[in-house]
Amino acid sequence: MASATSTESPLDAIPVAPPDPILGLLEAFQKDARSDKINLSVGVYQNESGRTPTLECVRRAEAKLLESGEGHGYLGIDGHPAFVARARRLVFGADAEPGGPLADRLAVAQTPGGTAALRVAADFLHAQFPSSRVWLSQPTWVNHAKIFQSAGFPIGEYPYFDARSHGLDLDRMLDALGQAGPRDIVCLHACCHNPTGVDPSAAEWERIADILRDRNLIPVVDFAYQGFGDGLDEDSAGLNRLVAHGLELVVCGSYSKNFGLYGERVGAVAVRARTPRGAGAALSQIKSAIRANYSSPPRHGAAIVATILNDAELDALWRDEVVGMRRRIRAMRELFVRSLAEHGVDQDFSFLLKQRGMFSFSGLNRMQVDELRSRHAIYIVDNGRINVAGMTTATMDRLCRAIASVLAS
Ligand SMILES: Cc1ncc(COP(=O)(O)O)c(C=O)c1O
């Protein structure tokens, strides 16, 4: 007898997932027919013409790669060897070089962007520390909770941003971390905190390092904006404090922003262990997590980064281009604060000058954000986060006039 077949559709019954809050805004922006629309929501760098440029060093590296016959073969599970060698150095400095104190205490693997670095880190950590909790700053990048939850972790939050001072709420942060259990995982932003733009000072990093060590916590340092804060080396200062305290930690690096290689998906996950055995074991487990996720990472973007960093001239050009992006962001912060005052805004926005990187919490509330979008075609994330790198000299006047009118209404 033929078995009964059901005509019910299993897929028809599944719920629709909510759209990503930031990428959803991008779709709305793209559909907006107003010609003077301004997008300050998505986290990509834009130049003075409002475009996300291909860096000159990347263009030249691609020409070199065409000639070199790099090919399209699979990479090993842990990625492009020349890229990995350079990524170690970029994140941990000279200590990671052969013979340096960290040389045999690091486990580093290439990943498809910083997102996959976080996901591989999360899978690796969950396999080894299944009863730990992950602590995220309140607020943090919207994807952090999803990534760590998907790996199976419960999430806790620690206070971070003080809305009154527009700065770091260190005492409440340390109080909350004081409640974390041993081997709980604490996600920190190395620099250019997303979404607030607020980073700890050197002295504050010391106190954070002390509590992480005293409570035997495992830091996961998200390093998505190296070079966008104070400089490529300067931006590792906090991370270096944690390393100097002897902490075992994970770093999740992204080369999307500082090389402008967004769509090529270039990142790296790095574990700093206290012993060579710990580093070897961590690398084996990371490779196991990668194999189960995507087998091996993509070649092209990593080959571009390796070509740039292995060529003295291209490396110097890249460093200059990073300085150029950082200076432009800084100049936009200054112009924005000045223009708001010129448009009669009496609220003090000078806190924007203390914040680092592409993002700032503007302090605009949900109603004001909605009004900017509906009346002025200016797109800002609902929580008031603005991407300063989306501003240009040409759009500044219109932007500040619109904000002044929304604040006055
Ligand atoms: C804090 C933070 N971490 C990680 C990422 C992910 O970077 P990627 O685009 O390289 O996956 C981003 C990207 O916006 C970010 O802002």
Structure notes:
- The protein is of the alpha/beta class and 409 residues long.
- The chain has 2 domains: 20-53 and 326-408, Aspartate Aminotransferase, domain 1 (Alpha-Beta Complex), CATH 3.90.1150; 74-310, Type I PLP-dependent aspartate aminotransferase-like (Major domain) (Aspartate Aminotransferase, domain 2, 3-Layer(aba) Sandwich).
- 43% of the residues lie in helices and 13% in strands.
- It contains 13 helices and 13 strands.
- The strands form 4 sheets. Strands 2-10-9-8-7-3-4 form a 7-stranded mixed beta sheet, sandwiched between helices.
- Helix 4 packs parallel to helix 5 and helix 11 packs parallel to helix 13 (393-408).
- The protein is globular and about 60 Å long.
- The chain starts with 20 loop residues before the first helix and ends with a helix.
- Bound molecules: pyridoxal-5'-phosphate.
- Pyridoxal-5'-phosphate (PLP) binds at residues 43, 113-115, 141, 189, 194, 222, 224, 254, 256, 267.
CATH superfamily of the largest domain: Type I PLP-dependent aspartate aminotransferase-like (Major domain)
- Work out the radius of gyration: 22 Å
Number of helices, where a helix is a run of at least 4 consecutive DSSP H or I residues = 13
Strand/helix succession: HEHHEHEHEEEHEHEHEEHHHEHEEH
Task: Write down the overall mean pLDDT.
Answer: 95
Give the overall silhouette: globular
Helix content: 40-55%
- The side-by-side strand order for the widest beta sheet comes to 2-10-9-8-7-3-4
The CATH architecture of the largest domain can be given as 3-Layer(aba) Sandwich
Largest sheet: 7 strands, mixed
β-strand percent reads 5-15%
Number of domains: 2
Low-confidence stretches: none
Summing up helix and strand content along with how strands pair, one would put the structural category as alpha/beta
Topology-level CATH name of the largest domain: Aspartate Aminotransferase, domain 2
List the ligand species: pyridoxal-5'-phosphate
Q: Can you identify the CATH class of the largest domain?
A: Alpha Beta
Distance between the termini: 74 Å
